[in-house]
Known about the structure:
Layout: H1 3-13, E1 28-31, E2 39-45, H2 48-56, E3 61-66, H3 78-90, E4 93-96, H4 99-103, H5 109-116, E5 120-128, E6 131-142, H6 144-155, E7 160-162, E8 169-174, H7 183-188, E9 193-196, H8 203-210, E10 213-216, H9 219-222, H10 225-238, E11 241-244
Parallel strand pairs: 2-3, 2-11, 3-4, 8-9, 9-10
Antiparallel strand pairs: 1-4, 5-6, 6-8, 7-10
Helix pairs in contact: 2-3
Amino acid sequence: MILENLLQYVDTLLNVGDHPDYPGAVNGLQVDGPEDVRRIAAAVDASFETISAAAAVGAQLLIVHHGLFWKGLRPLTGRRYRNIASLVRGKVGLYSVHLPLDAHPELGNCILLARALGLDVQGRFADFDRAPIGWWGTVKPSTPEDFLDHVGQVVGGPVRLLSGGDHAVRSVGIVTGAGGSFIEEAARSGLDALVTGEASHHTYVDALELGVHVVLAGHYATETYGVNALAAHLADRFDLAWDFLDRPSGL
């Protein structure tokens, strides 16, 4: 597969050019790679570890959710130089896609987690710069503790409940990653619970005072879905080999 053709397809599929995001996300091709792509690798984070692993499996393109340039314009020294040099020496291109992948209606982190949890999806949720990122839906009524156990089984890792009271969980908003800031929108929308990856300290008080259960299921764990789905989709469409480079942070 010609790299440029692959990039054009992904950019269009995920609406990368028009979707709002944080400036440091730098969505799209971050580091050029070989023109001929036969194998792709997917990872949540662009790190020296995942870059080295992508080169080791013989991938020509590494697709990540969190790219290299979150802190903006900085000198290409130290670990920043090491990471980019490793890509160049390993002949691996780097493609990063953040909120466009969280928000995508078929391959996105949020919709895939919602489906994995068995939500009857009702609509969009969690606007960022007037673009919805997450989804909301309903589940069979359960206690907060039972719902917490269910989430833990789905994500396969530790989860934590910030209780919003003793009411049952029926309606749930989903925002993967660091989505705790959407608790007020969840309250305004009348949702019983918000499932996200992580939250700030004040979210504990927000949950109590707004009456919304918050389930923290791990930033990493909630954002493995999209890169896996995207890589599998590209591999199937263009007859490519692919690998998921699982490097959990525990956070």
